[in-house]
């Protein structure tokens, strides 16, 4: 099945405003069905989770359905799905809890390619525990992070490797299964930041081999909160700070305070929406995988067109050329600051902001400092017309 782009776009009320959105890597637009699920949950009788009243049971059902939906999205065990305020929050919380098991002599590996949310929490936790941080660099020209880049930092003392599934700045997709294999050989755990990968690719925790995998539903049509997935047995071995009366079971042990039921209903609806994009299989996991493969084809086609178009424009410099990548382009226009370009595009109803997008280490590493450059990221709702408009708008600056 191919992606019916007209049908897909009609699901997003925001697209009626006529803006071409290339800022999906910062958060996608939201389908009507997701907003409706959130509103329905808030309008229905809802209480704290429990087993006595209908409204207590409803809250419990919402949480269970959201865990099941994430399990179908990521190919993981629903009993190991933790909900958090954001990926950043989930990572900080887990890093503090894991660091209780570290001490001087232990090592933690982070990469220059990662978003700061998969760097700074580990640096802080390592510092507190007395562990050493080791930094894996990446090829500045291609923006590829190789297995060798990571392996060079591994040792028998490595306790954890934090690596991105895909760079939100440059789109690079490291070979995560190979990195996981190398890390596991020295007995280290691997924490994969899947925030930018999840919206663009079928994901299977088993295939990646990741011990922990974090993502954010607002990057794939859902509401603003975070997700951490891991094998329940692994989560059992970690003991975060928690209140005395709150459940010590897994995954609840990791969820501080009352869960945002309405947002979780929105996230389940977002997974259902993904599953409905291009598949009519009977089980949702298969529908998700088939739909995401179709999304990849759609985005690859448009991304080739975007890259070709940008490459033809004199004065436009593309940063990075990774072989495996998400449809995310980072570029500068000679003679114009990133903010100039962002503003110029905004004036033509084309949204493509300029920044380091919190991948500040990566931006500095490739010589773009803290300012970064202009990022154009595709989403499943992007169409040919959007790409034509972006290219024409950038061309207007290069004449
Ligand atoms: C690759 C990547 N990792 C982590 C984050 C942080 O996610 P959150 O906003 O859920 O904390 C982002 C957000 O932009 C991201 O793009």
Shape: globular
- Unreliable stretches: none
- The proportion of residues in beta strands is 5-15%
How many H/I helical runs?
A: 14
Mean pLDDT: 98
Task: Estimate the helix proportion, in percent.
Answer: 40-55%
Bound molecules: pyridoxal-5'-phosphate
Largest beta sheet: strand ordering: 2-8-7-6-5-3-4
Main sheet summary: 7 strands, mixed
Written overview of the protein:
The protein is of the alpha/beta class and 399 residues long. It contains 14 helices and 13 strands. The chain has helices at 5-10, 32-43, 54-74, 87-99, 120-129, 147-151, 176-185, 205-208, 232-236, 261-276, 284-312, 338-347, 360-365, 384-398; strands spanning 20-21, 81-84, 107-111, 132-136, 158-164, 189-193, 212-215, 226-230, 316-318, 328-333, 350-351, 354-355, 373-377. A seven-stranded mixed sheet has the order 2-8-7-6-5-3-4, with helices on both faces. The protein has a four-stranded antiparallel sheet with strand order 9-10-13-12. A two-stranded parallel sheet has the order 1-11. The radius of gyration is 21 Å and the shape is globular. It starts with a helix and ends with a helix. The relative contact order is 0.17. Bound molecules: pyridoxal-5'-phosphate.
